[in-house]
Amino acid sequence: MSHSAPLSLHSALVVRSPFDAALLERYRRQSGEIDIHWTPTTVLMKNIENGQQCDVVIVTDPAMDQLVAQGIVDPATRKPLVISRIGFAVKQGAPHVDVSTTEQLVKTLREGRSICYSIGGASGIHFKTVLKKLGIEQEIDAKASPIPEGFTAEKLISGEADLAIQQISELLVVPGVEIIGYLPDELQKITAFSIAQFANSERKQQAAELIDIVTAANTADEYQKFGLELRN
């Protein structure tokens, strides 16, 4: 089925890999064109606060709660999407440093040259709280290579960092990197994401079709390939 105006999707970065790999093409084949803006949830929420409009939005659950409370999204269209975990990557071929326990992680961070995290992303915000909890925030930040937003693994390719932390699916967006492990369980933060239509969307049918496609049970394998778990 074809529609004249492209659907507008504003989404957190977390689902970019499975969407680019397969899910957006499923939508295009069934429903038509789609315009996508990929930004961290914190940046996306600021953009919405400043009046930015779209048809469908994907953000963390707390952010979606806020959009529902403000009447910006239609709560009847809200669906749970994925669960994401935070992990680490190195450049392909680099040694796989040990991040398996809190003790080993601290040792790795102290001995490493530089780690990259995203200031605007949920993973980076959490990582800062972890560093503070471990009492090494100033020490690690003094040699870190933080970015305002985007994909931290790009700093591995450029050589500016030798370790990157982010949601696993976001690390895998960048070719030429390898996942070496997750944040240890006692430090891990599992983040849940939801999808919903903007209440004032003029493309409600297209929006509903996209939501149905990306939350369908047969998408679970696509998400799993990139370290994500489809929510029931």
UniProtKB/TrEMBL annotation:
Gene3D superfamilies: Periplasmic binding protein-like II
InterPro entries given in the database record: ModA/WtpA (IPR050682)
Pfam family, one: SBP_bac_11
Secretion signal span: none
GO MF terms held by the record: molybdate ion binding
A Gene Ontology biological process term: molybdate ion transport
The name this protein goes by in its record: Molybdate ABC transporter substrate-binding protein
Taxon lineage: Bacteria, Pseudomonadati, Pseudomonadota, Gammaproteobacteria, Enterobacterales
